[in-house]
Amino acid sequence: MRPLRRFRRRLSSWTTRAQDEERLRAEIEEHLALQAAESIRAGLLPAEARRQALLKFGGVEATKEDYRDQRGLPLLETLMQDTRHALRRLRLAPAFTTATVLTLALGIGATTSIFTLVHAVLLKSLPVARPGELYRLGREARCCYMGGYSQDKEFSLVSYDLYKHLRDNTKGFSELAAFQAFQPLFGVRRAGSPEAAQSCPGEYVSGNYFVMFGISAYAGRALAANDDRPGAPPVAVMSYRLWRERYGSDPSVMGSVFNIDNKPFTVVGVTPPGFFGDSLRGNPPDLFLPLNTGPFVEVDADLNKLDTHWLELIGRIRAGAKPASMEADMRVELKQWLRSHWGEMSANDRAAFPDQTLFLTPGGAGITAMREQYEHWLRILMMVSGFVLLIVCANVANLMLVRGMERRRQTSLSMALGAPASRLVRQPLIESLLLSLFGGAAGLGIAFAGTRLILRFAFPSPPGFAGVPIAASPSMPVPAFAFVTSLVTGIAFGIAPAWMATRVAPIEALRGASRSTARAGSLPRKALVVFQAALSLTLLSASGLLTAALQRLERQDLGFEQDRRTIATISPRFAGYRTDQLSPLYRRIHDSMAALPGVSSVALCLYSPLSGGGWGTGIWVDGHPAPGPRDDHFAAWNRVTAGYFDVIGTPIFKGRGISEQDTASSRKVAVISETFARKFFPNEDPIGKHFGLTADTARQFEVVGVAKDARYLTGTFGERILPLLFLPEAQAEYAHSNQGSLFLRDVVILTRPGASLSAAAVRQAMASVDPNMPIVTIRGLREQVATQFAQQRLIARLTSLFGLLSLVLASIGLYGVTAYNAGRRVNEIGVRMALGANRGDVVRLVLRGALALVLFGLLTGLPLTFAVGRFLGNQLYGMSPYNPAVTLGAVVALGLSALVASFVPAFRASSISPVDALRTE
Amino acid sequence: MKDKADVLQGTLALMVLKTLDVLGPLHGYGIARRIEQISGDLLAVNQGTLYPVLLKLEQEGSIASEWGTSENNRKARFYRLTRGGRKQLQAETQGWQQTAAIIGRFFAVKAEDLK
């Protein structure tokens, strides 16, 4: 109690300091006066009485000192004193302060903006209630459909039937929700509105989806279990974003009917603003539809297909439930379910049955496809920005060391006067911390702007879509990160100068400044320059590697032509077309586009190259043994209209392409790629051979042509091009199957050389076919391809930027050290010149010292560059990380800028007149 | 060395409290004189050490101070015991007496008494 009261008083005492000081002085004065008066009464002379009084009192100054220690909190006070002192010193050197703060701001800002991304993508949980209780099925994110009764490695996608089986039998979940792994686009139009349907990403979710996440509606109501049963009135929940941006937060949206893919749905609610669904991704869903409305929207819904696995699961576990034992239960349930479908299973499924298993993993972050996709390159960027920060630290440490040198005399004087070493260390350290905190504050601003920029480039989204739900404004952990980074930075670059301060001998104060012979401080400074050179070489070569890899990517032969090709993406499904209406529709679209002025030819396809679409299948070759369970018999396939190969610009090597002669009544044909030919028809002529897409239809298609390999699938740039096959649209089995693959998505338009095609003209032509048919996007094929490299380009550019920054910083550092050392050697240079050295000798002398440092830096940096090259690994898309040209380029770049940086001070040193130099002594 | 100073300070504080208890409000010099008279050497040199002790006691709330006029008509700071200080004095007096009694008994014991 009493110590506490005392502490409070001491804490507050600094406000009354001047007053207290005066009071003590008065009290002591009074004390001495009374003592002296008494002695005078005893017969002493006044002067002697005063002397006696002083003697008796003891050391007045010591008492005062003691009193002050008791009065306040000396540690705090001296700290504040030092801080004030440091601030004053910084104010007195505005150029130094500004330069340092700016440099630090760049370093801290770069690191912080990258951390914002790391935090959002890698560390953050979904904005839902108690994310720690959520568990999901599967370890890796998988997209988007799996067929059959076996899955490789783990069962992570499930069919609706399997979902119900797991939901009803696993006890540990309070709710187990299912939702679609693939996010389709829906055509949305408010009933009665004249506008054409607009495309919105959406997903089918189970009725308990929102209950499981603990999310209640922002307006209206969320979906309930009742909405998700066969025959329930079709309802939908809309995202806050869509509601606000397209419908102006109109409350009458609730309860209104919207046509979704031309089917009437009642919108019952709006999700809360921060909610972006079950996973962080580029296009968060704008519509949530109950699973059971699937068959209402599309005839060919996946809902009741037992062996089509298209659902992800996330569940909330009950308090006290053990995920490990739940996982074990679910494995048993999976086996039970599979066994109950033994009759429908293929031989391969049965063979794989013993290996079938599943995993339950923490699901608080949702489906982490994006995390898996971006983790590596975020690590790269984090490392790169960390390097920049290190170089910044080294640079600032260098500047601080120079300041320390300038302060040597003062420091040694303080020491001679008895200043404790701790206080002397503290002063430069406080200065460093202040600088880095200012730098951190400025860095936050840079980080904010930087993050916005990076978000724009890193996660490009077509206009009208939400884009990735990462806020550029830093959330709480980000400023905390910046603050901690600043502190660590401040200590990192402040520790050396602080340490130097204690190594000053008091005797130095007594020597003349120019007489000072101590070379202390030049070794740490040299080490810092070597360190900077090494790091900057590493960054330069990393950026060189990434840029070279990017160029290789962009220049690679994709197997199709990019110029003069425009891709219009449509969705006949939005306009409510039935599959039997499709073939005539394609014909009309083709004719209407082909009639546009400047258009040379037109073809439609299921998906154009690198559009993000892709369909895969197994291949059974006629006359070959059937593939076993572990044999790779995968190929990607595409459905195209006549003349497609000419329009897209893929040469046919053998036979012919898809043409008008392939009709519904002619023999079923296919065009295959070179890789397909090599893989499935090794050492034989594929023309005239047959294959099929299922085990019992191996004679389904006859090969009529072999096309050049072309890259269609995204995200596989480091790998070899997959085997491809093309089927004619005209031979699609419209009558038998009602598959999604019947809905061709991309219209490829080839314009004549020199002609241009406006988006408006394309839209108009489409509107003349059907005003209700929305065009999702129109873009050049070149642009479509370029967006595939956006990430790669961003990393390459950022790394180059950082590399350049580090080069500049390292050069400044080298310049500083060289100039400083040359300055210290003015006398020596003067003597040398007086003895007959010419300017060239002096320049060489100074340069030799500087370049030795750089050489040392290069030698230390080289092994580091190789390590970094290996770390970059698959970001190089198959390029070897040991690229002599790149390494040489980095060495030359660093060497040249080092030469420039050290030549300036060398030249200046050589222009000293020997007389002046000797006179300064 | 430091331990000794601490003990000294603790004792000094108790002496200050007792002095103020007996004599009522007093200025620093008065307290110093009084302690000097009673304890002899303890404060003969270094009367100055008294002031930090006074400050500490005041911060702890055991004593309070205000400006007044001294016997030779000068402005002086007068210290007086607060209620808290009186309580503290009682508690510490008791403590001291106990300690003194125990230590006293220890010194009184002769070697043969323990046999």
What is the strand and helix layout of this fold?
The complex is a heterodimer of chains A (921) and B (115).
Chain A: H1 2-12, H2 17-41, H3 46-57, H4 60-71, H5 74-92, H6 94-123, E1 134-137, E2 146-147, H7 160-169, E3 173-180, E4 185-190, E5 198-205, H8 209-213, E6 219-220, E7 235-238, H9 240-247, E8 257-260, E9 263-270, E10 287-290, H10 294-297, E11 308-309, E12 311-317, H11 323-340, H12 347-352, E13 360-362, H13 369-406, H14 408-416, H15 421-458, H16 477-502, H17 522-555, E14 565-570, H18 582-594, E15 599-605, E16 615-618, E17 620-621, E18 634-640, H19 644-648, E19 652-655, E20 669-673, H20 674-680, E21 690-692, E22 701-707, E23 724-728, E24 746-751, H21 759-769, E25 775-780, H22 781-788, H23 790-824, H24 826-834, H25 839-872, H26 884-910, H27 914-919
Parallel strand pairs in A: 5-10, 7-9, 18-23, 20-22
Antiparallel strand pairs in A: 1-12, 1-13, 2-11, 3-12, 4-5, 4-8, 6-9, 7-10, 8-9, 14-24, 14-25, 15-24, 16-18, 17-21, 19-22, 20-23, 21-22
Helix pairs in contact in A: 2-3, 2-4, 5-15, 6-13, 6-15, 6-16, 7-11, 13-16, 13-17, 13-23, 15-16, 17-23, 17-25, 17-26, 18-21, 23-25, 23-26, 25-26
Chain B: H1 2-23, E1 26-27, H2 28-39, H3 50-60, E2 63-69, E3 75-81, H4 83-108
Overview features:
heterodimer; A: 921 residues; alpha+beta; 4 domains; eight-stranded mixed sheet; six-stranded mixed β-barrel; 13% strand; elongated; B: 115 residues; Arc Repressor Mutant, subunit A; three-stranded antiparallel sheet; 3 strands; 14% strand; disordered N terminus
